[in-house]
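S2.1 Query sequence (Mitoferrin-1)
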Amino acid sequence: RSRRMELSCAMGGSAAAPPGPGPPGAGVMEGEEYESLPSGAALGTHMVAGAVAGIMEHTVMYPVDSVKTRMQSLQPDPKAQYRSVYEALKKMVLTEGLWRPLRGINVTMLGAGPAHAMYFACYEKMKKSLSDILQQGGNSHLANGIAGSVATLLHDAVMNPAEAVVKQRLQMFNSPYTSVLGCVRTVRRTEGFGAFYRSYTTQLTMNVPFQAIHFITYELLQEHLNPRREYNPRSHIVAGAVAGAVAAAATTPLDVCKTLLNTQENTALSSLNIRGHLSGMANAFRTVYRLGGVPAYFRGVQARVIYQMPSTAIAWSVYEFFKYFLTKHKLEKRT
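Output structure tokens follow.
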């Protein structure tokens, strides 16, 4: 018996971006109701599939993410100035060692699993509950937006300290940190616990428009590529990758500001006679403009788009596959 799964929810990317919203009817199998599964099983399916997808998304493309962080540096060291992603990767490997582009990947893996599991658990639960209240049996965009926003709060609360602050400091050229624990201890001792959430508001401000742009673009593409909303890996990959690229390019200015807040580049801040630590998105926006004008807001856009396209495609295919596989397995056990 053939089974078909509708698309559930768009995946976003990033450094830091969590998966995006999708229609409340997600997960319907032909001849079987996905949501008719026991609530615990459905919740566990979302969490497992989301955790695996999150880890895969962040780790497979991690070297490109390392390049993106460096290319967003506002006043880079002369030895860390790159013209392309390929040149940057080649330079990093030849001058700093084969494993340098992967430094910090362990903390990203540790954070991505629980962050994405929490995201999907919260999103799927809230999406269904709110849709039943706001538009029974229909697709409520308001419910999708509220559920995605709340889920993003949880996702970023876990990922911001690990994936942003610690990871990005380890990725920088001539980073004084050699290990995750060493970085955590030093930042905690010299800058206080608040340093781990210094860019949290910027991260949220970036992820909310990222999700909106990604969702709209994805839905428009799906109308043409997969109008029947069947389980179709090819359409997931193509639509997700294009939507991720568009959203990534549009939100690059916010990502540049986030990187500045996370890394606290001493050279850049000293050149403007800024003492202490930079905090707040408004301050970051003004500082970026003072350092490089409008073009500075789009530093690393090439690396960000190159990173986001395949990572979004990976996240889509992995999440949908595991969700389909686990649901199919549970339905077969029931019958």
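The CA atoms of residues 294 and 335 lie 60 Å apart. The chain has twelve helices and no strands.
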